TrEMBL record:
Gene Ontology terms: cellular component: Cul2-RING ubiquitin ligase complex
Molecular function terms, GO-annotated: zinc ion binding
Gene: ZSWIM6
PROSITE patterns: ZF_SWIM (PS50966)
Family annotation (Pfam families): ZSWIM4-8_C
Keywords: Metal-binding, Zinc, Zinc-finger
Lineage: Eukaryota, Metazoa, Chordata, Craniata, Vertebrata
Protein name according to UniProt: SWIM-type domain-containing protein
Domain SWIM-type residue range list: 188-225
Domain of life assignment: Eukaryota
């Protein structure tokens, strides 16, 4: 509502003195009270008022209600006050007062409904869990106390309501809003008009804009309902004016103008001018308006609803598009519509019309139409597209148009909904469409969603008993159909199973259907379990239950006339839920439709989980589980199902946990049957093309477009995990569950999760490890390894490490087994760097308590694995193989030979240098030298690669050769000269070789002479010449593209070159010639050459 501070609109009623023409009210008033009189406390005695409002507990002594109050209450509910005045010539004032008194609403339920989204409705579907938020920021879903209704109660209880006055059909008062930390105390003026027990208009000076009433309106309304004897009641103001003479009227008007002259003086003068003008419009009308006189005959009697605010709020939500909360808020509005309809409030239909008009007026529709985008692609989160018939393109609009043709005139339907005693025990027609079953109880054959929509319509419009009767007839019909289907399948079972026929029997699933047929039946029956319709309207119960529907206990209430002995509404509700959840139905097309199937299934199961199972309900579960297993194509758990049938994993998990304490064999049989996921099988069963064309999958694709497949697979995994947990300690069941997992689960990540779950369950701290469950865990882990061996998986290293841990827990034979079969499980790198390394670690030996013989056997397997991996992938495994084989001479030599064989073809210089350094570290310098020379043959450093990562390796290799002796250095220098063209690297090597004597200890322990090597002889002469040549080539290369900002750097480079030149006996001459050549060739670079001359002459 938009509560604004302006005055209410002029009243429609025109009131005048008797005898002033045809427009006047006939008759006079009896028992006048004098000028300004008539003030009277509104209510009768407190006890009578409390009794009338139904607030006294049963059995408490109270005075009988007077005939006047009984009659006045009924008239106040049904008749507009103008009709009362026209019907009776003389109306005694006491009668007027009682009618005016009883015309104010008496129930707080409607006040609550119009001031919050959550009214404690007994229908969970009408008020979603947590749906306590009003749009426009009027309430917070997380804080019920911020609801306007709750805040209004708090204001009332806090004594914030004052100056309450009822004049005729108008209530006014002030409500003080206490001071807050950031806001001062404010006083709000509230005015309420009412008629026939409905509030017809409200105004509040708080200026709050919202769809529903503010807390101040709530506080004043509840004050009038709860404390009627403290409200001063006056007759309509026109009645008081009738009793005044001319002098009194003039005094009244002048005092009124004096008190409010700033507000009303312009209006008063304008009215006076018009009245004094003979031809004014105001003088053409008999009587004058009275805002306190009640409704006229033509006025519509409905609760106040600010239509403009409804439109604005819906428009706001639509403009927010897909932002968080907008869809939820719209759904709350729809829930409010249902709540109003259930209360038989005409505003429900009006509000639905307003919402729909805003949808249709959305400017984006025209844009989407131009873009060729169907509206349902954008709005299907609020309006489902119903692909539920054999005709394509059937939408919610066509469904709505068809609903207009539905009628309620069928005599059989009328009898069903109107009487609990409608039976026919002599009816013996056993045909498919018989009107009664074998018990003589009525059946209702109609398209199930449509039939359930009738139940929903009855509930929504406030006919709970009629809805319950029809719901029972529908459930009895479904149960009878279920039995018939089982008989048909048993008769044809052998033929159907032989052919492998998988045709679907119901293309339109009931769970996830836009009309929610199963949810409707379930809710209707569950309401009957917890609500006594006769006492439901007691508001005290309503207040206690507000927002606490989940805490209610469901009971087996006395049986209905058309239920078998021992049955109750509760058993019917549970059974129809199980029937719907177990129905085989095709997966619908489209993301939203598929999400809705999953969501509705989980919501229904969540409601079932609130019910505590007793022996009666366990029998229902057993009965339905057996039917689901034996009903063939009619059941989602039948032996052969359609490839694109909706999976039963979530439902089967619930069945399994429910049945397990009572019938473990049936529980496992049901869960194991549900494990399949045929849509992921590589080949579809025969008969798969029986699906009608309009819902067929895209043929070229291997899999249909199941947008919720990841969720479905996770539910399949949850079902398997639940069975593994339950089967702990039972070898036979664990083997069966393992076989089912390996057959039906196709996702490596989910199998890995199951393996981890099984491992955790098997190794709980408070008990000894379950070896069978550990083996299951290991087997699943091995399957994951095989599945992910040839595919990329970011969790692969984690999986490998976990598998080794699991195998360690199982025992030494498991570790030996995975190493013997490593090539089917691991890459060579994984096998050496993770598996073998972990197996040979001290922690593994300690964990397994291995003796020396077992250690050696395990180490032998690890070495064999390492050598095999090195042969297959020497680049990545050779070093690991050498490390693992260190303690076995033969294995180590074999690994070294593998490296030498691969060095010429399969390994790069970086890998060879790494292994060479390892060899030196382990005390094999000659082998390190051999590998270093092989690495040098693969290396190529150009003139400008002076920061190459291999430079350190080259320097190390030269240092190693130098330390071994002159011969080794002489052998490697030609390789260096061939591979390295970078002048700075070569000069660095040259200087290092001239600083120390090569090889203090040569080969075979022979001591060297200790003399420094000469630069004029090989091998250093070759290195010196190569270094000088590299400097010359690098200089010319750099001068080709040099820029002025690099001049100083270039001069420093020439200085280093001069140092190298001077190491030769004729170096000074060579460098001078070199500089002169530069000056001649690059004389165009005058500034640079000037710098060269300044430094080098």
């Amino acid at each position: 509502m938009a509560e604004r501070g302006q005055l209410p609109p002029p009243a429609k009623r025109l009131c005048c003195r008797p005898g002033y023409g045809s427009g006047c009210r006939p008759g006079g008033r009896a028992g006048g009270a004098g000028p300004g009189g008539g003030a009277l406390c509104a209510g009768p005695s407190s006890a009578a008022a409390a009794a009338a409002l139904g607030l006294l507990p049963l059995g408490k002594t109270q005075s009988p209600e007077s005939l006047l109050d009984i009659a006045a209450r009924k008239v106040a509910e049904k008749w507009p006050f103008q009709r009362v005045e026209e019907r009776f010539e003389r109306i005694p004032e006491p009668v007027q007062r009682r009618i005016v008194y009883w015309s104010f609403p008496r129930s707080e339920r409607e006040i609550c409904m119009y001031s919050s989204f959550n009214t404690g409705s007994e229908d969970p579907a009408a008020a979603p869990v947590g749906a306590a938020a009003a749009p426009g920021g009027a309430a917070d879903a997380a804080d019920e106390n911020r609801l306007p209704f709750r805040r209004g109660i708090a204001l009332l209880d806090g004594g914030c309501v004052d100056n309450v006055l009822q004049v005729g059909f108008h209530l006014s008062g002030t409500v003080t809003e206490p001071a807050m930390q950031s806001e001062p105390e404010t006083v709000c003026n509230v005015a309420i008009s009412f008629d026939r027990c409905k509030i017809t208009s409200v105004t509040c000076s708080c200026g709050n804009k919202d769809i529903f009433y503010c807390a101040h309106v709530v506080a004043l309304s509840l004050y009038r309902i709860r404390k009627p004897d403290q409200v001063k009641l006056h007759l309509p103001i026109s009645e008081t004016l009738f009793q005044m003479n001319r002098d009194q009227l003039q005094k009244f008007v002048q005092y009124l103008i004096t008190v409010h002259h700033t507000e009303v003086l312009p209006t008063a003068q304008k009215l006076a001018d018009e009245i004094l003008s003979q031809n004014s419009e105001i003088n053409q009308v008999h009587g004058a308006p009275d805002p306190t006189a009640g409704a006229s005959i033509d006025d519509e009697n409905c609760w106040h609803l600010d239509e403009e605010q409804v439109q604005e709020q819906v428009k706001l939500f639509l403009s927010q598009g897909g932002y968080h909360g907008s869809g939820k808020q719209l759904n709350l509005l729809f829930a409010k519509v249902r709540e109003m309809l259930k209360m038989r409030d005409s505003n429900g239909a009006r509000m639905l019309t307003l919402i729909t008009e805003q949808f249709m007026a959305d400017p984006r529709l025209a844009l989407w139409r131009q873009q060729g985008t169907t509206m349902t692609d954008k709005y299907r989160q609020l309006w489902d597209e119903l692909d539920s018939s054999n005709r394509p393109h059937r939408t919610v609009f066509t469904r709505a148009i068809e609903a207009c043709d539905l009628h309620w005139q069928d005599s059989h339907l009328q009898h069903i909904i109107s009487s609990d005693l409608y039976t026919n025990y002599c009816y013996h027609d056993d045909s498919e469409n018989s009107l009664f079953d074998s018990h003589g109880w009525p059946l209702w054959h109609e398209h199930v969603p449509t039939a359930c929509a009738r139940v929903d319509a009855l509930r929504s419009h406030g006919y709970p008993r009629e809805a319950l009767r029809l719901a029972i007839a529908i459930v009895n019909t479904l149960r009878r159909q279920q039995q018939k289907q089982l008989e048909v399948f048993r008769a044809q079972k052998k033929e159907l199973l032989h052919k492998g026929v998988t045709s679907i029997t119901n293309l339109e699933g009931w769970v996830g259907h836009p009309l929610d047929p199963v949810g409707t039946l379930f809710s209707s029956l569950m309401e009957a379990c917890r609500v006594d319709d006769e006492s439901f309207h007691g508001f005290s119960d309503f207040m206690e239950n507000m927002g606490q529907c989940k805490s209610l206990e469901y009971q087996h209430l006395p049986a209905h006339k058309v239920l078998e002995e021992g049955e109750s509404y509760l058993t019917l509700a549970v059974e129809v839920a199980l029937i719907g959840l177990g129905q085989q139905r095709i997966m619908p097309d489209g993301l939203y439709a598929q999400e809705k199937v999953c969501r509705n299934e989980e919501q229904l199961i969540s409601k079932l989980q609130e019910i505590e199972l007793d022996d009666t309900l366990v029998k229902i579960f057993r009965k339905q589980a057996v039917f689901l297993l034996e009903a063939g194509p009619y059941s989602g758990l039948g032996e052969v199902i359609h490839r694109e049938s909706v999976p039963m994993h979530t439902f089967a998990k619930y069945l399994f946990t429910s049945l397990l304490p009572h019938d473990a064999e049936l529980a496992y049989k049901t869960a194991l049957r549900a494990m399949r996921l045929l849509v992921l099988e590589s080949t579809a069963p025969s008969g798969d093309m029986s699906r009608p064309h309009h819902i067929a999958s895209v043929v070229p694709n291997r899999y249909p477009r199941w947008f919720t497949l990841s969720h479905i697979e996770s539910q399949q995994c949850e079902l398997a995990s639940t069975m593994l947990t339950a089967a702990k300690g039972d070898v036979r069941r664990l083997e069966t569950v393992l076989e089912s997992i390996q057959k039906n689960i196709h996702s490596s990540s989910h199998i890995f999760k199951l393996a981890q779950d099984a491992f955790k369950i098997a190794t709980l701290m408070d008990s000894l490890p379950d070896i069978t469950l550990l083996k299951v865990s290991l087997e699943l882990g091995l399957q994951v390894m095989r599945m992910t061996l040839s595919t990329l998986n970011w969790r692969r290293r984690e999986m490998v490490r976990w598998l080794v841990t699991c195998a360690t827990e199982v025992g030494v034979y498991a570790l030996d087994s995975i190493m013997q079969n490593w090539f089917t499980l691991f890459t060579p790198t994984e096998a050496t760097s993770i598996v073998a390394t972990t197996v040979m670690s001290n922690s593994t030996i300690v964990r397994l308590h291995l003796d020396c013989h077992q250690q050696e056997k395990l180490a032998s397997s690890a070495r064999t694995l390492a050598l095999q991996c090195a042969m297959k992938d020497p680049q990545n495994c050779a070093l690991s193989a050498l490390t693992l084989c260190e303690k076995d001479h033969i294995a180590f030599e074999t690994a070294y030979q593998i490296v030498l064989d691969a060095a010429t073809t399969g390994m790069n210089y970086s890998q060879l240098f790494t292994i060479a350094r390892y060899m030196e570290h382990r005390g094999y310098p000659m082998r390190a030298y051999k590998l270093a020379t092989l690495a040098m043959t693969h290396l190529n450093l150009s003139y400008n690669q002076d920061t190459h990562p291999a430079i350190n390796d080259v320097l190390w290799a030269c240092a190693l050769s130098h330390s071994l002796g002159k011969n080794e250095l002489a052998a490697i220098i030609p390789l260096v000269v061939k591979s390295v063209k970078c002048a700075t690297v070569l000069s660095d090597i040259l200087r290092r070789c001239t600083l120390t004597t090569p090889g203090m200890v040569g080969l075979h322990g022979r001591r060297n002479s200790g003399k420094l090597m000469s630069l004029d002889k090989a091998p250093l002469r070759q290195l010196l010449d190569a270094t000088i040549g590299a400097y010359i080539n690098t200089t010319h290369s750099r001068l080709t593209h040099i820029s002025p900002r690099h001049y100083s750097e270039f001069i420093e480079f020439l200085s280093k070159a001069r140092e190298t030149f001077l190491m030769a006996h004729d170096g000074h001459i060579q460098f001078t010639q070199f500089i002169d050549n530069l000056k001649q060739i690059y004389k165009g670079k005058k500034k640079l050459m000037m710098l060269v001359r300044e430094r080098f002459g």
